[in-house]
């Protein structure tokens, strides 16, 4: 049933900005730019999707279908995960290209490399953990959960920029273009993937419990 | 097999409570669910469909509870709401394509038949449809998956008299095909036309559950001059209201000899109006 609901998410609920924001992975080619912001735009399109769901009475439509109430949460978070992972995969070849065309690196935060992709996954995991449990408390209020998630996302961007300037290990090893120091960079990517998985699962569990208690009117 | 059984359903909101709502539906009958705005009709239907989390009570549909098999139960239910507008900017074709994949019993031929019958153009969007056509589209979706129980939440609100009559005739045809219909409305004349049973909710409590003829047959309507009745008779009046030329009230049919006045048979609307008036007076 989750597969069918997922198809519904893509055909009916998805906001048109989602595929556009996915293309913003190309922003890693911009010289001296806080690249994590490109991934923040993806979360913005996910917020629009939830807004779109509210404006189209998606919850009542979906709940009148032969599905369990909890299936709705699972399919929305799965849809979100697919979009988030797609954006990281889409950005990956451009991070390689970025190292080739701008070997001097990025002066505004992390260089376009594997660590950046790990950070993007951490950003998505944090977004999911902050946004969804708050959203599923009351799906008619989409703005407040997004503001909370924005605060966390931009805090992460700020921390990233500070670390790149202030911590020598980050500056000399992690914040370097291309595949230099490949082992620690790969470990950072894996840590990002692990945190994404754990945080998204936690978001799903809490959201599911809250949505079960929510009255859809 | 029981179609729908609701027992001891309670739901508390600030300023409103659904208290101990219990009823059951007979197979192949149209049950009119009446009550004034805010009486608890939509909350009850919301609880039945698991849109609303009840505080306590038991709901079984086709002998199963939602906690046992929510998706399986919904395969046999068709929900139609007159008030809600789903995906107004998507084509009917797209909404139907998404909907059909969820139902094992979806019948394309039936869907096409209902689209033709209701003159639905699948290339239109719900926003391009009138209120009546929107209800017809929801109904076409509900009927194309072989729903045995139709839950209709104020489907005739906002419809013109011709469209209402058309829809009511469709409900009667569905009843003949053995479908069970729970029909919530505050337009009681619709129920005079098609309902077999009546379920009357008043301030979150079930005030009556009976065949419609028994319910209206219990009462009579009388008209009288203001202050013309003695106190003993005044005590027997139910929901006294002022009309253009006189006063009007409901009485229990057996009491009509006591008044010695012409007593008319009451229709559903008069019963509801006077019973609500009486309830408001008792609360004051």
Q: Walk across the major sheet of chain B and give the strand order.
A: 6-7-8-3-9-10
Number of helices of chain A: 9
Number of domains of chain B: 2
- β-strand amount of chain A: under 5%
Q: What is the count of helical runs of chain B?
A: 11
- The computed structural class of chain A is mainly alpha
Number of strands of chain A: 0
Rg for CA atoms of chain B: 21 Å
Mean pLDDT of chain A: 94
Distance between the termini of chain B: 44 Å
> What is the CATH homology-level superfamily of the largest domain in chain B?
P-loop containing nucleotide triphosphate hydrolases
Helix content of chain B: 25-40%
Name of the level-1 CATH class of the largest domain in chain B: Alpha Beta
> Helices and strands of chain B, in N-to-C order?
EEEHEEHEHHHEHEHEEHEHEEHEH
Q: What is the string of helix and strand elements of chain A?
A: HHHHHHHHH
**Most extensive protein-chain contact, per-chain counts:** A-B, 25 and 30 residues
> Largest sheet of chain B at a glance?
6 strands, mixed
Oligomer: heterodimer
* Cα gyration radius of chain A (Å): 18 Å
The helical percent of chain A reads over 70%
Please describe what this structure looks like.
The complex is a heterodimer of chains A (217) and B (284). Chain A is mostly helical. Chain A has one domain (2-213). In chain A, 75% of the residues lie in helices and 0% in strands. Chain A has nine helices and no strands. Chain A has helices at residues 2-13, 17-22, 36-55, 58-63, 69-101, 114-135, 143-166, 168-174, 182-213. The radius of gyration of chain A is 18 Å and the shape is elongated. Chain B has helices at residues 41-48, 66-75, 92-100, 108-117, 131-143, 161-176, 188-194, 212-217, 231-234, 256-259, 268-283; strands at residues 4-13, 16-25, 30-34, 56-61, 64-65, 77-81, 149-153, 180-185, 197-202, 205-211, 219-224, 238-242, 247-252, 263-265. In chain B, helix 6 links the parallel strand 7 (149-153) and strand 8. Chain B starts with a strand and ends with a helix. Chain B is of the alpha/beta class and 284 residues long. In chain B, helix 4 (108-117) packs antiparallel against helix 5. A six-stranded mixed beta sheet of chain B has the order 6-7-8-3-9-10, sandwiched between helices. Chain B has a four-stranded antiparallel beta sheet with strand order 2-1-4-5. Chain B has a four-stranded antiparallel beta sheet with strand order 12-13-11-14. Chain B has eleven helices and 14 strands.
